[in-house]
Write a structure and sequence with these properties.
Elements (H helix, E strand, L loop, with lengths): L13 E4 L5 H11 L3 E4 L3 E4 L5 H8 L6 E4 L2 H8 L10 E4 L2 H9 L4 E2 L7 H10 L6 E7 L5 H8 L3 E12 L5 H8 L5 E4 L2 H10 L3 H4 L4 E4 L2 H9 L6 E2 L5 H12 L7
Parallel strand pairs: 1-2, 1-9, 4-5, 4-7, 5-6, 7-8, 9-10, 10-11
Antiparallel strand pairs: 3-8
Length: about 260
């Protein structure tokens, strides 16, 4: 999506971005490029693990592993923040380009699946890659899903999970967002994870009434299922779990005749 002066499809739309920083700023910038008004409220803040010793111990013993798996940019930043992480470390694998970006910017080579992946796709890519790694270290959030570990373990891989960071939910919805909802000024909410969706919905007073006229957009079917479970099925689901795909899906929802990406 590269908007021209005459192609700003989010003009007149107010969009709430719930993803954590620093991704929140990046998405807000993109929304503004597309003509929209970005309302920013990260519903999760990222912190180091309560006990950093397991992560540091894993970094000190990387020779025990054939590969290190990164499932988010936060995991990549956590790895970089805990030296030693030698350039001849085990092969680094990431779920997608966004997850790999901090490592690549630091000079590391990262193996990626052929397209943005979920747990099952990433597991298959790891299993089918030449010289498939047998001993894997996975860096995850304190509260994370076990799908990837289950897929890899079932395929005979030895998996070590280490908490690399924790995501703390916001305590209350900010007054600015509440005001936008109460006045009917909010057009859409972007959800980039199940945890973000749950944190927002469970802290919003009377969500059924306040979200009645708001378009909910989920970055993946998993996030969509979380919203469905909470009683608020999204109107928009990205075809692939990327910011670009999410914004494209939202634009298509509002402008179904517009064939431009």
């Amino acid at each position: 999506m590269n908007p021209t002066p005459h192609h700003r499809p989010l003009t007149g739309r107010v969009i709430l971005i719930t993803r954590p920083q620093p991704g929140n700023d990046a998405t807000a910038h993109r929304v503004r490029q597309l003509g929209g008004e970005a309302l920013q409220m990260p519903v999760l803040t990222i912190h180091p693990p309560k006990n950093p010793e397991p992560l540091q111990r894993a970094m000190n013993n990387l020779d025990r592993f054939d590969g290190v798996v990164i499932t988010s940019a936060n995991g990549a930043r956590a790895l970089l923040a805990h030296p030693p992480c030698p350039m001849d470390a085990p092969t680094l694998y990431a779920v997608g380009k966004k997850s790999a970006a901090p490592l690549e910017q630091a000079g590391y080579k990262v193996m990626l699946p052929p397209h943005a992946a979920d747990a099952e796709v990433l597991a298959k890519a790891l299993i089918n890659v030449p010289n498939s790694p047998r001993r894997l270290l996975i860096l995850q959030a304190e509260i994370g899903r076990d799908n990837l570990i289950q897929h890899l373990t079932k395929a005979g891989r030895t998996v070590t999970r280490v908490v690399a960071y924790r995501a703390k939910p916001l305590e209350t919805i900010t007054p600015l967002v509440m005001q936008a909802l109460e006045k009917g000024h909010l057009d859409a909410v972007l959800f980039f994870s199940s945890r973000s969706a749950e944190s927002f919905i469970t802290r919003l007073p009377d969500p059924a009434a306040r979200l009645q006229q708001v378009t909910l957009a989920a970055i993946s079917p998993l996030t969509a299922r979380t919203l469905q479970r909470l009683g608020h099925p999204p109107q928009v689901i990205a075809q692939t779990p990327t910011e670009e795909a999410l914004l494209s899906a939202l634009i298509h929802h509002w402008h179904p005749q517009d064939k431009r990406p």
